[in-house]
Amino acid sequence: MDTPVATPNRHGADGTAGRVRVLYVDEDCDDITAVTETLTGSTDEFTVTVCETADDALKAIENASYDCVVSEYRLPDRDGIELLRAVRDQSFDLPFLLFTDDGDESVASNAISAGVTDYMTKTPLSEQTELLRQRITSAVARYQEEADILDRMTDAFFAVDENWEFTYANERGRRVISRAMAVDRDTTDLLGQNIWEAVPSIEGTEFSKQYRQAMTQQEPASFEAYFEPLQTWFEVSVYPSPTGISVYFRDITERHKHEEEIRGRERTLREIYRVISRKDLDFEDKVERLLEIGQHVLGTETAALSRIDGDRYVFEIVSDRTGTTEAGDAVPLDATNCERAVVEEQTLVLADIAEDRPELAERAGYTEMGVSCYLGTPVVVDGSVYGTFCFYGTEPRASFSEWEVTLVELMGNWVSYEQERERREQELTRERNRLEEFASVVSHDLRNPLNVAFGRLTLVNEEYDGDPEHVEALQRSLERMDELIDDVLALARGGHKVIDATEASLDDIITAAWDTVESSDATLERVDTDVRITGDQTRLQQLFENLFRNSVEHGSTSSRTPSDDSLEHGSSPTGVDDSDESVTVSVGTLSDERGFYVADDGPGIPEDERDVVFERGYTTSDDGTGFGLAIVSEIVDAHGARITISESEDGGTRFDVTGIQVE
User: Fold this and answer.
1) Residues 6+ apart with CB under 8 A from 428
2) Distance between CA 604 and CA 32 in Å, rounded?
3) Above 60 in pLDDT, residue 571?
4) Phi, psi angles (nearest 5°) of residue 463
5) pTM across the whole model
6) 532 phi/psi in degrees, rounded to 5
């Protein structure tokens, strides 16, 4: 770094930096004279080298650097197209202009295929030479601009001494610095210039701060910063030494753009999640906001959720910045692009309808509504296409990105899911209404005659002096019918959602439940139940009642006989425990505040029956209804919890309910 190294010029080491070097290939003396005089006689700086044959031209290109090649089509040793191909083998981007009157449409076509930069006729020569100069100037400018863009994609380097004077800059570094200096990089000699004077726009920026700090503290630094004059982000590494600093930097603008795109996508996804998760918005409000989000991302004027109604396309929910379309409007389906998305049952992506699908440009959507770009995905509900979720505009686009297509499909899939869920909920509501109506009929039509039967049985019992077993059997049958009616009503009206979830005392719920159970010969034990539980207090009490009743009725000595070893059986003929040995029921909370358990010391439930005991109507008892544990299961589900069966420590049955908070 201590020894200054000169920066090479753009066009080689022959002292012609800043001039446009043209290689002209032609054997016609008059044409050569006219072209040379026009180029060298202009105010622009041109140097012209003339070759009469293609071979001479190729040798010249090997031995020197040129900014542009101009060639006649007809040459002594080969034609201009062959020369063009040979030049392209050496340089894919060097400007090459074909200047001839010997060509035709075929020659022009071949020249374009071979990569010609421009094609011009010579006649009239006096006018065309001036146009040729302009074309050369324009082609070389584009060539140099493209070279600059490629250069920005690579690392650059420069060094300054302790006096802040440039001692070295590689070609890439010199180009960037020259752009920042706003001067012609081909004529700028950076060596010996003070960086703050040469590039005053760097003062007061993060670059100057970091450079000075590295020089003063003699510590390396790495940073990223934006340079406003060049509208470019740079990644910079600074390495100090006693004689100055060395700076390595690269253009990371594209990376920053990509990162910003990712951040934008994340913001969009978060916004979508906030919309679909809001409880205070109904389906229509959510769809309206999704359409607005999609419009913002895609930049289209119109967005809509539409429904297919026979041969009509009905706009259900619309966001239209032009104000031409409203919800409820309908058009013929075959006039729309959506018809293709519906028929093909896949996302339709048309950045430019006339270009991508010319046959759709004949439809009214294009000819009358002016729809020029379209992105829509079918909404599928229960396996059938319901309609489309689409975005469209009046101006064609270059393309829709993969991200944009994915975003529309994501929102369309949510709409499909919500439509299906809403339809299922409506069907469920209808089913529950029918079930409750049925239960009400059962309650009314059976309870009335049942009450009459109970009343008449009381009278019969007072007058009857025969075998009392007959009356008792009739009493048990009527009571069983009453239990069945209660259980059917509980199942029909219980539902699957917790209606009133509040915090309550677990001990209070257990006490209320135990008081409803015929348990004179049973014992209740509590373990750590002095806690609060969150849920529907009424339904939780019903849960404990059924679990307690199950333990009490099936935990007696008579239920432990070898001939009777399954759930809901083994009770005495009267339905109550008449043994000398009582059952003990224990209730306790689980660790980590995750739920509770109910256990007993009865005969237990065989392992092969535990998977089916919660099914409605399942029982092996002559007296059981088979609904008690089914009701328990539904209450647990309604709380979003889970119930499992295992063997208790005393060999009986243990029910664990997890997912209901106790604290």
Assistant:
1) none
2) 112
3) no
4) -95, -25
5) 0.47
6) -105, 145
